[in-house]
Amino acid sequence: MGDRYNIHSQLEHLQSKYIGTGHADTSKWEWLTNQHRDSSASYLGHFDMLNYFALAENETKARVKFSMLDRMVQPCGPPPERPED
């Protein structure tokens, strides 16, 4: 039983430390937003991926980088309306 509590507390610590891991109250929109931001950040961090996207879109690297940074603001659109409790 103590082992189960230890795993649960480790998971709570991980979720509080890193935003992208989610928690019990994470909505689908928040989860997808985190996934899109993580993916965009990874693409921007890997120079070869940025070159690939620039070549595939027939745009300059600076334009692709700017558009990816711009998409990180609201990658999944505005947040949905939350019902008042």
TrEMBL record:
InterPro entries: SF3b5/RDS3-10, Splicing_factor_3B_subunit_5. GO terms for cellular component: precatalytic spliceosome; U2 snRNP. It comes from the Eukaryota. Pfam families: SF3b10. One of its GO terms (biological process) is mRNA splicing, via spliceosome. Belongs to the SF3B5 family. It is found in: Nucleus. Keywords: mRNA processing, mRNA splicing, Nucleus, Spliceosome. This is Splicing factor 3B subunit 5. Coiled coil: none annotated.
